[in-house]
Amino acid sequence: MELIENLKTALQRMESEGDAALAMAEAGTQTFLDQLKQHTIQYPEPVFAVLRRLKPVLFIKNTAIVTRFEDVQEVLSRDDVFAVTYSEKMEVVTGGNDFFLGMQNSPDYERDTAHMRTVMRREDVAGQIVPFVAKTAEEVIQASGGRLDVARQLGKIVPAKWVAAYFGCPPPSNEELAQWSSAIFRYLFTDLTNDPAVGAAARDAAAKARAWLDQTIALRKANPDDDDVLGRCLRLQSAGVPGMDDLAIRNNLIGLLTGAIPTTAKCCTQALDELLKRPAELAQAQAAARAGDDRLFARYVFEALRFNPNNPGLFRVAAEDHTIAKGSLHATAIPKGALVLAATQSAMFDERIVDSPNDFRVDRPDYIYMHWGYGLHTCFGQYVNQVQIPGILKPLLKRQGLRRAAGLAGQLMYDGPFPSNLGVEFEA
Ligand code: HEM
User: Fold this and answer.
1) 329 C-alpha vs ligand 1 centroid, how far in Å?
2) What CATH architecture applies to the domain 39-425?
3) How far lies 250's CA from each of 13, 69, 214, 237, 300, in Å?
4) pLDDT over threshold 80, residue 6
5) Shortest CA distance to 67 belongs to which of 59, 136, 117, 310?
6) What DSSP line would sit under 205-233, residue for residue?
7) Ligand 1 pocket check for 385: Cβ under 6 Å
8) Segments making up each domain of the chain, as ranges
9) Which pTM does this prediction carry?
10) What's residue 34's pLDDT?
11) How far is the CA of 380 from the centre of ligand 1 (A)?
C-alpha cells in the first residue's frame, strides 16, 4: 500500500512540478510494474484511478499500462497488433504443440476453438452444469457441519468435480487435479519474472496431468459411448475430423482444465470476501439467493468481484508500432516489441463510462464487466463461469448466520496469486 501511495503522490505532483516529479513517478512506476508482475499488489485500483486521470496510457521502460475503458478494449480487440504472450510456456505445458489460448488468429486457432465448442456446448450450461454445480456445492456445504474454508474446501473442489464429471476425466483425487491446474496456471499467467521454482512446479504438474490424460483417453477408447466432453472428442476422432488425434485431444483438455479450476476458486473466494465486507449488500444477496432469483444473485456476485477481480489486467506484446487512442489528447505511440498491460480492472472503474464506479450497484449494464477479458481470446468458459461461480456460492449464502470465522481463520489470505484461506461459519 505504501508503494501505491508513493506512486499516487508522484503522479499527482506530475501536473504541477514537471520533470522531477515525472522522474519520481517513473521510479515508482517501475517498482510498481515489478510488483504488479509478481501479483503482490492485490488492490491496484487507487493507482489505476490516478493513471486514468493523469496518464491514461503510461509508457515506461518498454512497458505500457493502459487504464481507460475504450483503450483497454482497443488493445484487446486488435489481436493482430497486440499478440498474446502465452505460446512458449503453453508448449512446455503440453510437451509439444500450442493450445489455442497461446495462438494468434490462425487456421489452427479457428479449428481448435470450433472443435471445443462442438464438444462443450452452450446448451450444456443450463441442462447439465447448473444442476451439477448446485448439487455438488450443496453436498460440500452440508458435509461441512457449519464451518468451512471457502478457498480450499469449496471453491476448488466443486470445479474439480465438475471437470471430472463433465469432461469425463476422473482424476486420481480432486485435490491433486486442483494442485496441478494451479501450478500450471501460475506459470502461464502470473510468472512474468520466470521464477525457476514456479517453472519447475509447473513442469512437474504438467507431466503428471499429461500422463493422467493419456491414460484416461486410452481407457475411454474401450468404452467410447459416454456423452461427455472426452466422449464427444473421440467421436470426432472416429469421424476422421482433422486436429483430433489423441495428442490434440490431450492438449485441448489440459488447456481447458488449467483455465477452469484455480480461476473459479479464486473468483468465488474473492467475491464472497467483498460481500462479507458489506453487510447490507450481503443481506440483499442472501435474500436473492433464498428467493431463488438467480439473475439478481449473480449480479451481486459479479459486482462484488469487480472490487477484487481474478486479475488486474491482461498482458500483450505489440507485434507492430501502434498509437493507442489515436486522435485523442492522450494518444500514445507504442513501439513494436513493447509489453502492454490492458488493465481490465481499471476499465471496470473508469468513471467516464462506469457510473459511480466506487459504489456497489447491481443495475450496471453487462458491458462494463470485463471479468472474462475482451476480444478474440475472451474466456472460453465465460458462460460456464456465469453460472458456476454464483452456483457455488448460492447454497452457502442461503444459510442462516453466515459470518467470517473468528480471527485469522476468517481472513482472506494468499499463497502466491491464489487465495489460500477464507474461513466462514453458519448454522449447520
Ligand atoms: C472464474 C473463472 C474464470 C476466469 C476469471 C477466467 C478468465 C479468463 C480470461 C480473463 C481470459 C482471457 C485471457 C487473455 O485474453 O489473455 C480467459 C481465457 C480463456 N479461458 Fe477462462 N476464466 C475462467 C474460467 C474458465 C473456464 C471454466 C474455462 C474452461 C472450461 C476457461 C477456459 C479459458 C480458455 C480456453 C481461454 C482462452 C480463450 C481463447 O484463447 O480464445 N476459463 N479466461
Assistant:
1) 33
2) Orthogonal Bundle (1.10)
3) 53, 37, 7, 12, 36
4) no
5) 59
6) HHHHHHHHHHHHHHHHHTSTT--SHHHHH
7) yes
8) 39-425
9) 0.90
10) 61
11) 5
